[in-house]
Amino acid sequence: MLSLVLENKGNVARDHLASERTYLAYVRTSLTCASAGVGETAPVQLFTLSSSTNTYDQGRIDPQRFARPLGATVVLLGLFILVYGLVRYFMTQAALLQGFFPVARNSIAAVAFALGAIVSIVFGVLVAGT
Question: Is the separation of the CB atoms in 58 and 92 below 8 Å?
Answer without folding.
Answer: no
